Protein backbone atom coordinates (compact mmCIF):
# COMPACT_ATOMS: atom_id res chain seq x y z
CA UNK A 1 0.00 0.00 0.00
CA UNK A 2 2.82 2.38 0.88
CA UNK A 3 4.61 1.65 -2.36
CA UNK A 4 1.59 2.31 -4.52
CA UNK A 5 0.81 5.63 -2.83
CA UNK A 6 4.35 6.95 -2.66
CA UNK A 7 4.95 10.05 -4.73
CA UNK A 8 7.92 9.20 -6.94
CA UNK A 9 9.20 12.78 -7.16
CA UNK A 10 9.21 13.76 -3.48
CA UNK A 11 9.23 10.37 -1.75
CA UNK A 12 6.24 11.41 0.35
CA UNK A 13 3.83 8.71 1.55
CA UNK A 14 0.34 10.18 1.58
CA UNK A 15 -1.29 7.26 3.42
CA UNK A 16 1.09 7.64 6.36
CA UNK A 17 0.40 11.35 6.64
CA UNK A 18 -3.37 10.78 6.52
CA UNK A 19 -3.14 8.04 9.16
CA UNK A 20 -1.19 10.28 11.55
CA UNK A 21 -3.66 13.09 10.98
CA UNK A 22 -6.63 10.79 11.70
CA UNK A 23 -5.00 9.71 14.98
CA UNK A 24 -4.46 13.32 16.00
CA UNK A 25 -0.66 13.04 16.00
CA UNK A 26 1.46 16.08 15.37
CA UNK A 27 3.33 16.07 12.07
CA UNK A 28 6.99 15.17 12.10
CA UNK A 29 9.41 18.04 11.53
CA UNK A 30 9.69 18.62 7.79
CA UNK A 31 6.62 16.54 6.95
CA UNK A 32 4.48 19.57 6.03
CA UNK A 33 7.21 20.69 3.63
CA UNK A 34 7.24 17.21 2.09
CA UNK A 35 3.48 17.38 1.63
CA UNK A 36 3.72 20.80 0.01
CA UNK A 37 6.46 19.56 -2.29
CA UNK A 38 4.39 16.51 -3.25
CA UNK A 39 1.41 18.71 -4.14
CA UNK A 40 3.53 21.24 -6.02
CA UNK A 41 5.33 18.69 -8.16
CA UNK A 42 2.25 16.73 -9.23
CA UNK A 43 0.00 19.39 -10.81
CA UNK A 44 -1.32 18.06 -14.11
CA UNK A 45 -4.17 18.96 -16.49
CA UNK A 46 -7.27 16.93 -15.65
CA UNK A 47 -9.97 18.30 -17.96
CA UNK A 48 -10.78 21.19 -20.26
CA UNK A 49 -13.61 23.29 -21.64
CA UNK A 50 -13.22 23.91 -25.36
CA UNK A 51 -15.83 25.99 -27.23
CA UNK A 52 -14.26 24.98 -30.56
CA UNK A 53 -15.27 21.36 -29.96
CA UNK A 54 -18.98 22.19 -29.85
CA UNK A 55 -20.43 23.86 -32.92
CA UNK A 56 -23.57 24.81 -31.01
CA UNK A 57 -21.68 27.04 -28.59
CA UNK A 58 -21.17 30.62 -29.61
CA UNK A 59 -17.48 31.34 -29.88
CA UNK A 60 -16.16 33.43 -26.99
CA UNK A 61 -12.77 34.27 -28.50
CA UNK A 62 -9.53 34.48 -26.55
CA UNK A 63 -9.51 34.28 -22.76
CA UNK A 64 -8.05 37.58 -21.55
CA UNK A 65 -8.64 37.25 -17.81
CA UNK A 66 -9.50 34.67 -15.13
CA UNK A 67 -10.57 35.22 -11.55
CA UNK A 68 -12.00 33.26 -8.62
CA UNK A 69 -14.48 34.38 -6.01
CA UNK A 70 -13.10 34.90 -2.51
CA UNK A 71 -14.24 31.45 -1.34
CA UNK A 72 -13.13 29.71 -4.55
CA UNK A 73 -16.68 28.60 -5.33
CA UNK A 74 -16.97 30.41 -8.67
CA UNK A 75 -14.65 31.03 -11.59
CA UNK A 76 -15.12 33.91 -14.02
CA UNK A 77 -13.47 34.35 -17.44
CA UNK A 78 -13.22 37.57 -19.47
CA UNK A 79 -13.47 36.87 -23.21
CA UNK A 80 -12.43 38.59 -26.40
CA UNK A 81 -15.88 38.58 -28.03
CA UNK A 82 -17.44 41.17 -25.68
CA UNK A 83 -18.56 38.49 -23.23
CA UNK A 84 -17.72 36.73 -19.98
CA UNK A 85 -18.28 33.22 -18.60
CA UNK A 86 -19.03 31.77 -15.15
CA UNK A 87 -17.84 28.28 -14.17
CA UNK A 88 -18.33 25.91 -11.29
CA UNK A 89 -14.70 25.00 -10.54
CA UNK A 90 -15.69 21.81 -8.70
CA UNK A 91 -17.44 20.10 -11.62
CA UNK A 92 -15.63 22.15 -14.33
CA UNK A 93 -18.84 23.17 -16.08
CA UNK A 94 -19.85 26.50 -17.55
CA UNK A 95 -22.95 27.51 -15.60
CA UNK A 96 -23.62 30.92 -17.12
CA UNK A 97 -22.44 33.31 -19.81
CA UNK A 98 -23.15 36.90 -20.73
CA UNK A 99 -22.89 37.90 -24.37
CA UNK A 100 -22.61 41.50 -25.51
CA UNK A 101 -21.56 42.60 -22.03
CA UNK A 102 -19.60 45.43 -23.67
CA UNK A 103 -19.16 46.94 -27.11
CA UNK A 104 -15.57 45.69 -27.31
CA UNK A 105 -13.27 43.08 -25.76
CA UNK A 106 -13.79 42.23 -22.10
CA UNK A 107 -10.36 42.50 -20.53
CA UNK A 108 -10.61 41.96 -16.78
CA UNK A 109 -13.24 40.42 -14.52
CA UNK A 110 -13.13 40.68 -10.73
CA UNK A 111 -15.33 39.62 -7.81
CA UNK A 112 -16.19 42.41 -5.36
CA UNK A 113 -18.04 39.97 -3.08
CA UNK A 114 -19.72 36.58 -3.37
CA UNK A 115 -22.39 37.84 -5.79
CA UNK A 116 -21.10 41.03 -7.42
CA UNK A 117 -18.61 41.10 -10.26
CA UNK A 118 -17.10 43.97 -12.22
CA UNK A 119 -15.80 43.90 -15.79
CA UNK A 120 -13.86 46.37 -17.92
CA UNK A 121 -13.50 46.64 -21.67
CA UNK A 122 -11.64 48.19 -24.58
CA UNK A 123 -14.69 50.39 -25.15
CA UNK A 124 -13.66 52.43 -22.09
CA UNK A 125 -16.51 51.28 -19.84
CA UNK A 126 -16.64 49.49 -16.48
CA UNK A 127 -19.75 47.45 -15.58
CA UNK A 128 -21.03 45.97 -12.33
CA UNK A 129 -23.10 42.77 -12.45
CA UNK A 130 -25.13 40.65 -10.07
CA UNK A 131 -24.43 36.99 -10.84
CA UNK A 132 -28.01 36.09 -9.86
CA UNK A 133 -29.34 38.14 -12.78
CA UNK A 134 -27.07 38.84 -15.72
CA UNK A 135 -29.77 40.23 -17.99
CA UNK A 136 -28.76 43.78 -17.14
CA UNK A 137 -25.82 45.36 -15.38
CA UNK A 138 -26.19 47.08 -12.00
CA UNK A 139 -24.09 50.06 -13.04
CA UNK A 140 -22.31 51.13 -16.21
CA UNK A 141 -19.41 53.43 -15.36
CA UNK A 142 -18.22 55.76 -18.11
CA UNK A 143 -15.30 58.15 -18.04
CA UNK A 144 -12.25 56.46 -19.55
CA UNK A 145 -11.09 57.53 -22.99
CA UNK A 146 -8.99 54.44 -23.72
CA UNK A 147 -8.83 50.71 -23.14
CA UNK A 148 -9.49 49.89 -19.48
CA UNK A 149 -7.01 47.23 -18.39
CA UNK A 150 -7.07 47.19 -14.57
CA UNK A 151 -9.68 46.93 -11.83
CA UNK A 152 -8.93 47.07 -8.11
CA UNK A 153 -11.26 47.40 -5.13
CA UNK A 154 -10.61 49.12 -1.79
CA UNK A 155 -13.15 47.26 0.34
CA UNK A 156 -12.68 49.42 3.45
CA UNK A 157 -13.80 52.51 1.53
CA UNK A 158 -16.07 50.79 -1.04
CA UNK A 159 -13.99 52.48 -3.72
CA UNK A 160 -13.34 51.05 -7.15
CA UNK A 161 -9.99 51.87 -8.76
CA UNK A 162 -9.58 51.56 -12.54
CA UNK A 163 -6.87 52.46 -15.04
CA UNK A 164 -6.54 52.68 -18.81
CA UNK A 165 -3.82 52.71 -21.47
CA UNK A 166 -3.95 56.51 -21.65
CA UNK A 167 -2.35 56.53 -18.19
CA UNK A 168 -5.41 57.71 -16.27
CA UNK A 169 -6.23 56.21 -12.88
CA UNK A 170 -9.76 56.90 -11.61
CA UNK A 171 -11.63 56.09 -8.41
CA UNK A 172 -15.37 55.45 -8.18
CA UNK A 173 -17.32 55.82 -4.95
CA UNK A 174 -19.75 52.88 -4.90
CA UNK A 175 -21.35 54.03 -1.64
CA UNK A 176 -23.30 56.74 -3.42
CA UNK A 177 -26.44 55.10 -4.70
CA UNK A 178 -27.96 57.59 -7.11
CA UNK A 179 -30.26 57.45 -10.10
CA UNK A 180 -27.24 57.97 -12.33
CA UNK A 181 -23.89 56.20 -12.26
CA UNK A 182 -21.17 57.83 -10.12
CA UNK A 183 -18.69 60.09 -11.85
CA UNK A 184 -15.01 59.19 -11.88
CA UNK A 185 -12.60 61.04 -9.62
CA UNK A 186 -9.15 61.49 -11.20
CA UNK A 187 -6.53 59.98 -8.93
CA UNK A 188 -3.30 60.31 -10.93
CA UNK A 189 -1.87 60.17 -14.43
CA UNK A 190 1.06 57.92 -15.35
CA UNK A 191 2.16 58.09 -19.02
CA UNK A 192 2.64 54.64 -20.54
CA UNK A 193 0.63 52.91 -17.81
CA UNK A 194 -0.02 49.21 -18.42
CA UNK A 195 -1.45 47.65 -15.26
CA UNK A 196 -2.05 48.62 -11.62
CA UNK A 197 -2.46 46.37 -8.59
CA UNK A 198 -3.19 46.81 -4.88
CA UNK A 199 -1.46 44.82 -2.15
CA UNK A 200 -3.64 42.37 -0.18
CA UNK A 201 -4.11 44.82 2.72
CA UNK A 202 -4.47 47.84 0.38
CA UNK A 203 -1.44 49.68 1.78
CA UNK A 204 0.60 49.60 -1.46
CA UNK A 205 -0.23 50.47 -5.06
CA UNK A 206 1.85 49.07 -7.92
CA UNK A 207 1.79 50.55 -11.42
CA UNK A 208 3.68 49.03 -14.36
CA UNK A 209 4.57 51.01 -17.47
CA UNK A 210 5.82 50.52 -21.01
CA UNK A 211 8.84 52.70 -20.20
CA UNK A 212 10.77 50.09 -18.23
CA UNK A 213 9.92 51.00 -14.65
CA UNK A 214 7.39 50.10 -11.98
CA UNK A 215 5.99 52.80 -9.73
CA UNK A 216 5.25 51.75 -6.15
CA UNK A 217 3.30 53.84 -3.67
CA UNK A 218 3.90 52.79 -0.06
CA UNK A 219 1.64 53.58 2.91
CA UNK A 220 -1.17 54.21 0.49
CA UNK A 221 -3.93 56.66 1.39
CA UNK A 222 -6.25 56.80 -1.61
CA UNK A 223 -8.20 59.77 -0.29
CA UNK A 224 -5.05 61.95 -0.16
CA UNK A 225 -3.04 60.50 -3.02
CA UNK A 226 -4.05 63.06 -5.65
CA UNK A 227 -3.12 65.92 -3.35
CA UNK A 228 0.17 64.41 -2.18
CA UNK A 229 1.39 63.80 -5.76
CA UNK A 230 0.05 67.00 -7.28
CA UNK A 231 2.45 68.25 -9.98
CA UNK A 232 4.64 65.13 -9.88
CA UNK A 233 5.37 63.73 -13.35
CA UNK A 234 6.66 60.13 -13.03
CA UNK A 235 7.91 59.73 -16.62
CA UNK A 236 9.76 63.04 -16.56
CA UNK A 237 11.45 62.16 -13.28
CA UNK A 238 12.46 58.78 -14.71
CA UNK A 239 14.03 60.55 -17.70
CA UNK A 240 16.01 62.70 -15.28
CA UNK A 241 17.25 59.54 -13.58
CA UNK A 242 18.40 57.98 -16.86
CA UNK A 243 19.46 60.92 -19.03
CA UNK A 244 19.70 63.91 -16.71
CA UNK A 245 16.84 65.77 -18.43
CA UNK A 246 13.32 65.13 -19.66
CA UNK A 247 12.01 65.33 -23.26
CA UNK A 248 8.44 65.20 -21.96
CA UNK A 249 8.03 67.91 -19.34
CA UNK A 250 11.10 69.83 -18.11
CA UNK A 251 10.92 70.61 -14.40
CA UNK A 252 13.14 70.86 -11.35
CA UNK A 253 13.36 67.30 -9.98
CA UNK A 254 14.56 68.43 -6.54
CA UNK A 255 11.14 69.97 -5.99
CA UNK A 256 9.65 66.47 -5.92
CA UNK A 257 12.30 64.51 -4.02
CA UNK A 258 10.01 64.71 -1.00
CA UNK A 259 7.59 62.21 -2.60
CA UNK A 260 10.33 59.55 -2.25
CA UNK A 261 10.72 60.13 1.51
CA UNK A 262 7.26 61.07 2.76
CA UNK A 263 5.60 58.88 5.36
CA UNK A 264 2.27 58.80 3.53
CA UNK A 265 1.99 57.87 -0.16
CA UNK A 266 5.74 57.42 -0.52
CA UNK A 267 6.82 56.85 -4.13
CA UNK A 268 9.45 54.35 -5.26
CA UNK A 269 10.62 53.35 -8.73
CA UNK A 270 11.70 49.78 -9.54
CA UNK A 271 13.86 49.54 -12.64
CA UNK A 272 16.35 46.68 -12.25
CA UNK A 273 16.42 43.68 -14.59
CA UNK A 274 18.55 40.55 -15.05
CA UNK A 275 22.09 41.48 -16.07
CA UNK A 276 22.19 38.89 -18.86
CA UNK A 277 18.89 40.00 -20.39
CA UNK A 278 18.28 42.39 -23.28
CA UNK A 279 15.88 44.44 -21.17
CA UNK A 280 16.97 48.06 -21.04
CA UNK A 281 15.89 51.18 -19.22
CA UNK A 282 13.03 53.08 -20.88
CA UNK A 283 12.62 50.45 -23.62
CA UNK A 284 11.04 47.59 -21.69
CA UNK A 285 7.30 46.98 -21.38
CA UNK A 286 6.26 45.68 -17.98
CA UNK A 287 2.97 44.26 -19.21
CA UNK A 288 1.73 42.17 -16.28
CA UNK A 289 1.59 42.52 -12.51
CA UNK A 290 0.66 40.10 -9.75
CA UNK A 291 1.12 40.56 -6.00
CA UNK A 292 2.12 37.79 -3.60
CA UNK A 293 -0.80 36.60 -1.39
CA UNK A 294 1.04 37.93 1.68
CA UNK A 295 2.28 41.03 -0.13
CA UNK A 296 5.92 39.93 0.13
CA UNK A 297 6.88 40.34 -3.51
CA UNK A 298 5.74 41.44 -6.93
CA UNK A 299 5.54 39.21 -10.01
CA UNK A 300 5.94 40.79 -13.45
CA UNK A 301 6.16 39.78 -17.10
CA UNK A 302 8.46 42.10 -19.08
CA UNK A 303 9.12 42.34 -22.82
CA UNK A 304 12.16 43.95 -24.41
CA UNK A 305 11.80 46.87 -26.79
CA UNK A 306 12.53 44.72 -29.85
CA UNK A 307 10.05 42.06 -28.57
CA UNK A 308 12.69 39.35 -28.97
CA UNK A 309 12.82 38.35 -25.32
CA UNK A 310 10.52 38.12 -22.33
CA UNK A 311 11.31 37.67 -18.67
CA UNK A 312 9.30 36.73 -15.63
CA UNK A 313 10.72 38.67 -12.68
CA UNK A 314 10.08 38.68 -8.94
CA UNK A 315 10.75 41.83 -6.89
CA UNK A 316 10.98 42.07 -3.13
CA UNK A 317 8.64 44.95 -2.29
CA UNK A 318 8.47 44.69 1.48
CA UNK A 319 8.80 48.15 2.95
CA UNK A 320 11.74 47.28 5.18
CA UNK A 321 14.35 49.34 3.36
CA UNK A 322 12.69 52.74 3.62
CA UNK A 323 14.67 55.90 3.16
CA UNK A 324 15.44 58.50 5.73
CA UNK A 325 15.86 62.10 4.74
CA UNK A 326 19.45 62.07 5.92
CA UNK A 327 20.36 59.08 3.74
CA UNK A 328 18.48 59.97 0.55
CA UNK A 329 20.32 58.38 -2.40
CA UNK A 330 20.84 61.17 -4.91
CA UNK A 331 22.89 61.74 -8.01
CA UNK A 332 24.78 65.02 -7.87
CA UNK A 333 25.28 66.86 -11.16
CA UNK A 334 27.57 69.86 -11.42
CA UNK A 335 26.82 73.29 -12.84
CA UNK A 336 28.76 74.25 -16.01
CA UNK A 337 31.03 77.18 -16.43
CA UNK A 338 29.68 80.06 -18.47
CA UNK A 339 32.11 79.41 -21.30
CA UNK A 340 30.90 75.87 -21.79
CA UNK A 341 27.40 77.03 -22.64
CA UNK A 342 28.73 78.94 -25.62
CA UNK A 343 30.51 75.90 -27.07
CA UNK A 344 27.36 73.90 -26.48
CA UNK A 345 25.34 76.41 -28.46
CA UNK A 346 27.84 76.29 -31.32
CA UNK A 347 27.45 72.52 -31.56
CA UNK A 348 23.69 72.81 -31.66
CA UNK A 349 23.78 75.06 -34.70
CA UNK A 350 26.08 72.79 -36.73
CA UNK A 351 24.75 70.49 -39.49
CA UNK A 352 23.96 66.94 -38.48
CA UNK A 353 26.98 65.44 -40.26
CA UNK A 354 29.29 67.78 -38.35
CA UNK A 355 27.56 66.92 -35.09
CA UNK A 356 28.40 63.27 -35.57
CA UNK A 357 32.10 64.05 -35.78
CA UNK A 358 32.28 66.85 -33.26
CA UNK A 359 30.19 65.34 -30.47
CA UNK A 360 30.13 61.88 -28.98
CA UNK A 361 26.92 60.05 -29.70
CA UNK A 362 25.03 58.31 -26.93
CA UNK A 363 24.59 54.59 -26.76
CA UNK A 364 21.18 52.94 -26.76
CA UNK A 365 20.59 53.33 -23.04
CA UNK A 366 21.47 57.02 -22.97
CA UNK A 367 20.20 58.42 -26.25
CA UNK A 368 18.21 61.55 -25.70
CA UNK A 369 16.54 64.49 -27.34
CA UNK A 370 16.87 68.26 -27.21
CA UNK A 371 13.10 68.58 -27.00
CA UNK A 372 13.66 68.69 -23.25
CA UNK A 373 15.04 72.18 -23.80
CA UNK A 374 11.75 73.50 -25.12
CA UNK A 375 10.39 75.59 -22.27
CA UNK A 376 6.75 76.27 -21.58
CA UNK A 377 7.52 79.13 -19.23
CA UNK A 378 9.46 82.36 -19.12
CA UNK A 379 13.21 82.44 -18.62
CA UNK A 380 14.57 83.28 -15.21
CA UNK A 381 16.61 86.36 -14.51
CA UNK A 382 19.94 84.63 -15.00
CA UNK A 383 18.99 83.52 -18.49
CA UNK A 384 18.06 79.94 -17.62
CA UNK A 385 14.73 78.20 -17.28
CA UNK A 386 13.26 75.11 -15.61
CA UNK A 387 15.52 72.79 -17.59
CA UNK A 388 18.60 74.55 -16.22
CA UNK A 389 19.96 75.64 -19.63
CA UNK A 390 20.61 79.13 -21.00
CA UNK A 391 17.89 80.62 -23.18
CA UNK A 392 20.13 80.73 -26.27
CA UNK A 393 20.75 77.00 -26.00
CA UNK A 394 17.03 76.37 -25.65
CA UNK A 395 16.23 78.28 -28.83
CA UNK A 396 18.93 76.47 -30.80
CA UNK A 397 17.84 73.06 -29.57
CA UNK A 398 14.22 73.86 -30.30
CA UNK A 399 14.97 74.82 -33.89
CA UNK A 400 17.09 71.70 -34.36
CA UNK A 401 14.23 69.55 -33.10
CA UNK A 402 11.72 71.22 -35.40
CA UNK A 403 13.97 70.68 -38.43
CA UNK A 404 14.42 67.01 -37.61
CA UNK A 405 11.01 65.87 -36.39
CA UNK A 406 8.67 68.60 -37.57
CA UNK A 407 6.94 68.76 -34.21
CA UNK A 408 7.64 69.34 -30.53
CA UNK A 409 4.34 68.04 -29.23
CA UNK A 410 4.81 65.94 -26.12
CA UNK A 411 3.54 62.40 -25.70
CA UNK A 412 -0.21 62.25 -25.23
CA UNK A 413 -0.28 58.72 -23.83
CA UNK A 414 -3.14 57.33 -25.92
CA UNK A 415 -2.79 53.88 -27.46
CA UNK A 416 -3.21 53.56 -31.21
CA UNK A 417 -2.61 49.86 -31.74
CA UNK A 418 -5.28 47.22 -32.14
CA UNK A 419 -3.28 44.58 -30.29
CA UNK A 420 -3.76 43.93 -26.60
CA UNK A 421 -0.32 45.27 -25.70
CA UNK A 422 0.22 48.49 -27.66
CA UNK A 423 3.68 49.58 -28.71
CA UNK A 424 5.15 52.86 -27.59
CA UNK A 425 2.53 55.15 -29.08
CA UNK A 426 3.10 57.73 -31.76
CA UNK A 427 0.73 59.94 -33.69
CA UNK A 428 1.05 61.01 -37.29
CA UNK A 429 3.70 63.71 -37.46
CA UNK A 430 4.63 63.28 -33.79
CA UNK A 431 7.09 61.08 -31.94
CA UNK A 432 7.10 59.40 -28.57
CA UNK A 433 9.82 60.28 -26.04
CA UNK A 434 11.66 57.00 -26.70
CA UNK A 435 11.72 57.61 -30.47
CA UNK A 436 12.99 61.13 -29.97
CA UNK A 437 15.80 59.90 -27.74
CA UNK A 438 17.07 57.66 -30.55
CA UNK A 439 16.47 59.88 -33.55
CA UNK A 440 18.78 62.82 -32.93
CA UNK A 441 22.56 62.90 -32.52
CA UNK A 442 22.59 63.99 -28.91
CA UNK A 443 24.68 66.97 -28.03
CA UNK A 444 22.82 66.93 -24.72
CA UNK A 445 25.00 64.10 -23.44
CA UNK A 446 27.89 66.49 -22.90
CA UNK A 447 25.55 68.77 -21.02
CA UNK A 448 24.02 65.99 -18.95
CA UNK A 449 26.65 66.24 -16.22
CA UNK A 450 26.41 70.01 -16.08
CA UNK A 451 22.84 70.51 -14.95
CA UNK A 452 22.49 71.34 -11.28
CA UNK A 453 20.25 68.49 -10.09
CA UNK A 454 19.96 66.01 -7.25
CA UNK A 455 18.17 62.97 -8.65
CA UNK A 456 16.84 60.22 -6.46
CA UNK A 457 18.27 56.73 -7.13
CA UNK A 458 16.31 53.48 -7.14
CA UNK A 459 17.00 50.54 -4.87
CA UNK A 460 17.70 47.08 -6.34
CA UNK A 461 14.61 44.97 -5.75
CA UNK A 462 15.03 42.04 -8.15
CA UNK A 463 15.22 38.68 -6.36
CA UNK A 464 14.27 36.01 -8.96
CA UNK A 465 13.86 35.79 -12.72
CA UNK A 466 13.55 33.40 -15.64
CA UNK A 467 13.50 33.90 -19.40
CA UNK A 468 10.35 33.12 -21.35
CA UNK A 469 9.66 32.43 -25.04
CA UNK A 470 7.85 35.30 -26.71
CA UNK A 471 4.98 33.30 -28.20
CA UNK A 472 1.82 35.25 -28.93
CA UNK A 473 3.45 38.62 -29.54
CA UNK A 474 1.34 41.67 -28.92
CA UNK A 475 -0.77 40.03 -26.20
CA UNK A 476 -0.50 40.48 -22.46
CA UNK A 477 0.28 37.23 -20.63
CA UNK A 478 -0.67 37.17 -16.97
CA UNK A 479 1.28 34.94 -14.54
CA UNK A 480 -0.02 34.19 -11.05
CA UNK A 481 0.88 32.96 -7.56
CA UNK A 482 -0.55 29.89 -5.87
CA UNK A 483 -2.83 30.47 -2.90
CA UNK A 484 0.05 29.91 -0.42
CA UNK A 485 2.62 31.82 -2.50
CA UNK A 486 4.97 28.86 -2.95
CA UNK A 487 4.43 28.46 -6.68
CA UNK A 488 4.31 30.69 -9.73
CA UNK A 489 2.38 29.75 -12.84
CA UNK A 490 3.75 31.47 -15.92
CA UNK A 491 2.28 31.20 -19.46
CA UNK A 492 4.76 29.24 -21.56
CA UNK A 493 4.01 29.01 -25.28
CA UNK A 494 1.04 26.61 -25.66
CA UNK A 495 1.01 25.76 -21.97
CA UNK A 496 2.25 26.89 -18.58
CA UNK A 497 5.32 26.45 -16.46
CA UNK A 498 5.12 25.79 -12.72
CA UNK A 499 7.96 27.67 -11.05
CA UNK A 500 9.24 27.76 -7.48
CA UNK A 501 11.76 29.83 -5.54
CA UNK A 502 14.01 26.79 -5.02
CA UNK A 503 14.08 23.05 -5.62
CA UNK A 504 12.33 22.31 -2.30
CA UNK A 505 9.33 24.51 -3.16
CA UNK A 506 9.85 26.49 0.02
CA UNK A 507 8.11 29.74 0.83
CA UNK A 508 9.90 32.94 -0.06
CA UNK A 509 10.52 33.83 3.59
CA UNK A 510 12.59 30.64 3.99
CA UNK A 511 14.80 31.09 0.92
CA UNK A 512 15.52 34.80 0.45
CA UNK A 513 18.55 35.07 -1.87
CA UNK A 514 21.43 37.53 -1.41
CA UNK A 515 21.45 38.31 -5.12
CA UNK A 516 19.06 37.77 -8.05
CA UNK A 517 18.79 34.07 -8.89
CA UNK A 518 16.89 32.05 -11.45
CA UNK A 519 13.50 30.59 -10.61
CA UNK A 520 13.36 26.81 -10.30
CA UNK A 521 11.28 25.07 -12.96
CA UNK A 522 9.11 22.44 -11.29
CA UNK A 523 7.28 21.18 -14.38
CA UNK A 524 5.76 22.20 -17.70
CA UNK A 525 2.21 21.44 -18.81
CA UNK A 526 1.39 21.86 -22.52
CA UNK A 527 -2.36 21.37 -22.75
CA UNK A 528 -3.43 24.08 -25.22
CA UNK A 529 -3.34 24.48 -28.99
CA UNK A 530 -2.66 28.23 -28.87
CA UNK A 531 -0.68 30.69 -26.77
CA UNK A 532 -1.79 30.85 -23.14
CA UNK A 533 -2.72 34.38 -22.02
CA UNK A 534 -4.23 33.93 -18.55
CA UNK A 535 -3.62 31.71 -15.53
CA UNK A 536 -5.14 31.74 -12.07
CA UNK A 537 -4.86 29.64 -8.92
CA UNK A 538 -7.81 29.03 -6.63
CA UNK A 539 -7.57 31.10 -3.41
CA UNK A 540 -8.27 28.02 -1.27
CA UNK A 541 -6.43 25.07 -2.87
CA UNK A 542 -4.00 24.02 -5.59
CA UNK A 543 -6.54 24.09 -8.42
CA UNK A 544 -5.05 25.93 -11.40
CA UNK A 545 -7.00 27.25 -14.39
CA UNK A 546 -5.50 28.47 -17.67
CA UNK A 547 -6.98 30.10 -20.78
CA UNK A 548 -5.61 30.56 -24.29
CA UNK A 549 -6.11 32.50 -27.52
CA UNK A 550 -8.57 29.96 -28.93
CA UNK A 551 -10.86 30.26 -25.91
CA UNK A 552 -10.02 26.89 -24.35
CA UNK A 553 -9.95 26.67 -20.55
CA UNK A 554 -7.98 23.88 -18.88
CA UNK A 555 -8.21 22.81 -15.22
CA UNK A 556 -5.06 21.54 -13.49
CA UNK A 557 -4.80 19.95 -10.06
CA UNK A 558 -2.43 17.70 -8.08
CA UNK A 559 -2.66 14.00 -8.90
CA UNK A 560 -0.95 12.08 -6.12
**Which consecutive residue ranges, at least 5 long each, have pLDDT under 50?**
1-8, 322-328, 330-419, 423-430, 439-452
The strands making up the biggest β-sheet line up spatially as 18-19-20-23-27
- Inertia-based shape: globular
Please indicate the percent range of residues in DSSP E strands (runs of 2 or more): 25-35%
User: Main beta sheet: strand number and arrangement?
Assistant: 5 strands, mixed
Residue share in helix = 10-25%
Which class of secondary structure composition applies to the elements? alpha+beta
The N- to C-terminal Cα distance equals: 14 Å
Residue-averaged pLDDT: 76
Rg over C-alpha atoms, rounded to the nearest angstrom: 26 Å
Counted by DSSP, the helix tally is 9
**Number of E-state strands:** 31
Topology (elements, then pairings):
Blueprint: H1 14-22, H2 31-40, E1 43-49, E2 63-68, E3 75-79, E4 84-88, E5 93-98, E6 106-111, E7 116-121, E8 125-130, E9 139-142, E10 148-154, E11 159-164, E12 168-173, E13 185-189, E14 193-198, E15 205-209, E16 214-218, H3 222-228, H4 234-243, E17 266-270, E18 285-291, E19 297-303, E20 310-316, E21 330-332, H5 338-348, H6 352-358, H7 391-405, H8 433-439, H9 444-448, E22 454-456, E23 462-468, E24 480-481, E25 487-492, E26 495-500, E27 517-518, E28 520-525, E29 532-537, E30 544-548, E31 553-558
